[in-house]
Amino acid sequence: MTSGATDQAEQEKSGNLSADIGRDLRAVRQSKGMTLAEMSERLGRSVGYLSQVERGISVLSTEELRQVAKLFDVPVSWFLVLSDVPEEERGLITRAGLRRMSGEDGEGLSEELLSPDLSGSYEVMRSVFAPGARSSKPHLRMTEETAYMVSGQLDVHIGKRSFTVHAGDCFRFQEEEFYWENNSTKPAVAIWVVSPPIY
Question: Transmembrane ranges (predicted)?
């Protein structure tokens, strides 16, 4: 391959990554219910610049990417994982070693996105609840959520009702207060389907 062809291939790869980061930024922002103007104010960047980033025209600096990740409470790698995904698989396939982690929220919960991206009408997540962990407070989200318990057990509180769910059980709630507790000595693992996407 000639030097010119190599440079062109690198530029195309960089452009694709910029477009991917832009799409992911828009999807995360929208999933959090934040407008472009609100994000602009929180980051101290112009609406026009951030709009160009979301469209893949402008590129975030490393420091700006860190600020964006902090704003949306995701690791920086959330936006970079697609750089390792072959172009023909993007938006279609999520490989086991390339799942996006949303990190631990301090409650003993770690989650990873199983969906290829957040552009659809729902997302699929894998959640691991540490033994003895619990929600710090009830959560109320404008979502419909269904969870399948892969292993372990979880005490779930939906509205004013409480249940203990075990491996093989499913539960669902929609726009109701929800919190959870893992009162067992083993981790609990669940697969969630959430609509609309929230991460």
Answer: none
pLDDT tens digit string along 136-186?
888 888 889 999 999 999 999 999 999 999 999 999 999 999 999 999 999
**Number of domains forming the structure of the chain:** 2
> Which residues neighbour 103 within 8 Å (Cβ) at sequence distance 6 or greater?
73, 74, 75, 110, 111
Whether residue 122 is found in the same domain as residue 56: no
Contact 123, 113 (CB under 8 A): yes
**C-alpha dihedral, 53 to 30 to 76 to 97, nearest 10°:** -110
Q: What is the pLDDT of residue 9?
A: 41
